[in-house]
Structure formats: structure tokens, C-alpha cells
């Protein structure tokens, strides 16, 4: 069996047995295609490659300048492919069973402060076109912590009846309920009215859209790329540095601000749709970093005692 057929069979199993999302399957396909191409240039294939070849591939990836996270992700895809191949009888062994990988860097997520969030929402409400829609997008994203792919593909049925919670379909088709804040509910009502009025005037013969944020593109709804471009424009209007603004940063802001406000990790995990609470725990590091900064800059005893006017203060009662 050719390497391409190996990869194809593995991707089919991801879809059929694990119900993996399309973006997940595409990511595996890219990583495994890169590995297969590299093997081909070495005169090897997936049937004959061993641990030395995989190790040499990772070294080549590092020499290419790929980050440790990218190399770890590629090795993960290779591990899963070889495990699948052994289970299916394509190979008698798994050459990467004991291969140590580069590991993943535990990077703190970038986030936005409340002032920046408020500036972005204000800019959305003031846009010359689609202000009601743009305000709804920003309010919903910050109020729920949805992934941008979940937000733009929301069905309009999720908004009917002035809901206090919204049903979100996440990775792998898993569903979760996320509460809506009063500002988000108000923005949703305003947009639903404007959206329905526009839909009522659609040309004869064009079917009604089932999406909350419809578009005439192939997807039928606003795309992730379209939202990303919108967010960059709003950052410019709001005076927030564009390199600080990305859809996922609003999701991080949602989680970080909730945690700072006293929410528990389990609740945040459920709202974010994390399968493992270890993924959610990274936000405690963000909070710890901020609390440490507060102690170092605001605590009355944080100053250098040598420069303090009370430096010679006695410690005796």
C-alpha cells in the first residue's frame, strides 16, 4: 500500500471512528503529507521508515526553523499514523513507540484587558456598515468565549426566543450550553430583528439562510477569515494595536476575566468546551502572573527597604 493510501485510510478512520472535525483532519493531512514528502526525498516511505528516519525528520524540521510546538504536533500526527498502521496490519511494528519528542512549550495565552474589549465593542457599534451585526459578533464572542468557527456558524435557531443560554456545537460535534450576558442578549435581539428584515427582502428564489450570520459565500455564513479581517479593522478604529487583537484573544479574555472575578475552573472548562481541565488550568498561570505583579507594585512593603523612609524602623514591639 502506498504512503498516500496509508494516510487516506488513517484520515478516513479519524472521520468515521473519532468524528474528528474537518479542521482537525486537514491539519493531520498537512502534517503527514509533509512527512511523506520528506521520506520520499530520502528514498524511503511509510512502510520502511524507522525511528532513525523519524528522528532525522524532526531534526530537519528544527533546522527549517519550525517551532517546538509545530514539531511536537507533527510528531503526534506521525505517532497516531503508525499506531493506526500497526493496528490495521500495515506494519508489524510501531517505530516511534519509544521515540522522545521535543515536547510542547507551555505558553501563556495572549489576552486583552477590559478597556481594550470595551473599545473594540464601541468601535463595532460605530462602524458605518453592519454596525448592529458587528456589535452582536463582539458581544457574543466576549460573553461566551466561543471559538470563532463556532460563532460564525451559529444557526439562527439558537437565537430564537430571546434565550438566556446559547447551544454551541464545538469540536467533534460536541454540544454545550453557554449563558448569555444581558448586553449580549440585547445585541442579539437587535441583530436578529435587522437580520430577519434583510432576509424578508431577499430576491425571489433565494432560500432563507439557516445561519445567524448569513453570507453569500460558499459556506453560507460569515467566514473565520472575514471575521478576522473585521476584527483588525475594528482594532484600527478603536486605537488598539492590531498585533494584540485576534479572535482567540477575546476567548482568552473571557476566561481570564471570569477567573479573576471568582469563577471556578470547572465552570470555565464547561463554557470553553475543553475536554481536559488541564487545558483550562493555563489561565491560572495568567492570573498568578497578574497577582504577582500586583504584589510587587502595590503592596506597601514591596519597595526596596533601603530606599524607604522607614528603613530604620525597629521590629521590636
Automatic annotation (TrEMBL):
Instruction: Write down a Pfam family by its short name.
Output: Phage_int_SAM_1
Q: HAMAP family of this UniProt entry?
A: Recomb_XerC_XerD (MF_01808)
Enumerate the subcellular locations listed in this protein's record, separating them with semicolons. Cytoplasm
PROSITE patterns linked to this entry: CB, TYR_RECOMBINASE
Basic and acidic residues bias located where?
300-317
The protein's name in its UniProt record = Tyrosine recombinase XerC
Q: Which CDD domains does the entry link to?
A: INT_XerDC_C
The Tyr recombinase domain covers which part of the protein? 107-296
| Quaternary context | Forms a cyclic heterotetrameric complex composed of two molecules of XerC and two molecules of XerD.
Recorded name of the encoding gene: xerC
What UniProt keywords apply to this chain's record, in alphabetical order?
A: Cell cycle, Cell division, Chromosome partition, Cytoplasm, DNA integration, DNA recombination, DNA-binding
Every copy of the Core-binding (CB) domain together lies at 1-86
Task: List the catalytic residues.
Answer: 147, 171, 248, 251, 274, 283 (o-(3'-phospho-dna)-tyrosine intermediate)
According to the record, the residues making up region (Disordered) are 298-317
The UniProt family comment states:
Belongs to the 'phage' integrase family. XerC subfamily.
Functional summary from the UniProt entry: Site-specific tyrosine recombinase, which acts by catalyzing the cutting and rejoining of the recombining DNA molecules. The XerC-XerD complex is essential to convert dimers of the bacterial chromosome into monomers to permit their segregation at cell division. It also contributes to the segregational stability of plasmids.
Q: What is its main location?
A: cytoplasm
